[in-house]
Specification:
By secondary structure, the protein is α+β, with helices and mostly antiparallel strands. It folds into 2 domains: 77 residues, Helix Hairpins; 125 residues, Immunoglobulin-like (Sandwich). A 5-stranded mixed β-sheet has the order 3-2-1-5-8. Strands 4-10-9-6-7 form a 5-stranded mixed β-sheet. Helix 1 runs antiparallel to helix 2. The longest helix has 32 residues. The model has no long low-confidence stretch (mean pLDDT 94). Bound molecules: copper (II) ion. Copper (II) ion binds next to loops.
């Protein structure tokens, strides 16, 4: 992928909301950064050492303290409320969409094993098949990934979908997303999990719906022939 300053294009239904929070926080922190640095430089200049100037002691200003406490407090509460809504949609207790197509993803040092639901679209049946480092799914349909780990903590991260979730040994953690655009995307491990962490990547191949059906049929035929 070509290198960019900005985020990779977001291709999930909630990518826009996640990006809004990201850019809002970036704008707030960038504004604070430039104001603080400008103030610092101004004070360094204004109160520089000059002949005959004596040190001056002050107990500060209650008014200034109230202002510089209130503004960040209000800002943090507003960001908290706005991001809470996005969090609820993406990771909330009841956020899993009904009728989603389910996949089982098991992480281990240093690969992703993806069990696809097969032609019946149901996980845990005979026509399921497992691929290493490949996740094939249809666009414009809610997807649930049931995430597990066989050894240490890993993290399922698809930047283009704006989703990241730890895979924790002993737990099955569901993750949902819906992709709006067919294409190939990177799945990376986002939790330092050992010496091979850097190469723990996989491809997510998002098909159009009818193309996905054809692809599953061809895979199932291959499984049946074995
Ligand atoms: Cu890992």
């Amino acid at each position: 992928m070509p290198w960019h300053w900005s985020l990779p294009p977001g291709v999930s239904t909630y990518a826009g909301q996640v990006d809004f929070i990201y850019y809002l926080i970036l704008a707030v922190t960038a504004t604070a950064f430039f104001i603080v640095e400008a103030g610092l430089l101004w004070f360094v200049f204004k109160y520089r050492g000059r002949p005959g100037r004596k040190a001056y002691y002050t107990h500060g200003s209650t008014k200034a303290e109230v202002v510089w406490t209130a503004i960040p407090a209000v800002t943090v509460v507003v960001i908290g409320i706005l991001s809470g809504r996005v969090w609820d949609r993406v990771k909330g207790r009841d956020s899993l969409p009904a009728g989603a197509l389910e996949f089982a993803v098991t992480a281990k040092q240093f690969e992703w094993n993806v069990t696809h639901p097969g032609q019946d679209g149901v996980l845990g049946t005979d026509d399921d098949f497992t691929l290493r480092n490949q996740l094939h799914l249809p666009a414009n349909r809610p997807i649930v990934v049931r995430l597990r780990s066989e050894d240490v903590i890993h993290s399922f991260f698809v930047p283009a979908f704006r989703i990241k979730q730890d895979a924790v040994p002993g737990m099955e953690i569901p993750v949902w997303f819906e992709v709006t655009q067919a294409g190939e995307y990177d799945l990376a491990c986002a939790e330092l999990c050992g010496l091979g962490h850097y190469r723990m990547g996989a491809r997510v191949i998002v098909h159009e719906q009818d193309e996905y059906q054809r692809w599953v049929a061809s895979q199932s035929a291959a499984v049946a022939a074995r």
